[in-house]
Amino acid sequence: MEKEIYLAGGCFWGTEHYFKQMAGVLETEVGFANGHTTNPTYKEVYTDTTGFAETVRVKYNPDVVSLGFLLQMFFLAIDPTSLNKQGHDEGTRYRTGIYYTDAADLPVIEKAYQEEQKKHDRPLAVEKQPLENFFTAEEYHQDYLDKNPSGYCHLPLSLFEFAKQAREKK
Q: Where exactly are the structural domains of the chain?
């Protein structure tokens, strides 16, 4: 059995690479979520006029890793109080979000969100909403940091190592 969740954590290159390291993650794909045009290109999304967020589709095996754990890991990789900015990347395309396709996931998302909110004085800027649409990004963006190991990433390399070792306590 497999499930999926769509996570926007700033630049999608690092977010994808981070989730790929985790046990139980079966597949990742970078793309654009919850915008208002059809088949956007990276160049169009980059203008911040399409409403899309750089997003990673994460397919996972819920028998190995839970959605709750994936969301805990997601919150470790972002600044959840920063609006439209992660690291040096700024713009609405870099907003953070949790986009779901299964309404049954909403209670888990709400719980993770509330737990994270307790750690901050300011309100979280992370969107949590149903996935409206998702368009796969161009091929050169897929697995970008595997193809370009010294490519730009706003996430520290130590975070990828941490993700590789991370295991859910059951």
A: 3-165
CATH no., domain 3-165: 3.30.1060.10
Q: What are phi and psi of 82, to 5 degrees?
A: -90, 125
What pLDDT shows up at residue 1?
A: 87
Strands 85-86 and 89-90: antiparallel
Cα separation, 151 vs 165, in Å, equals 23
Describe the crossing of helices 67-77 and 106-117 by its angle, rounded to 10 degrees.
40
Query: Tokens representing 161?
Result: 């190592």
- Convert the pLDDT of each residue in 18-54 to its tens digit: 999 999 999 999 999 999 999 999 999 999 999 999 9
- Angle (nearest 5°) at CA 28 between 154 and 65: 100
Q: Give the active site residues.
A: 11
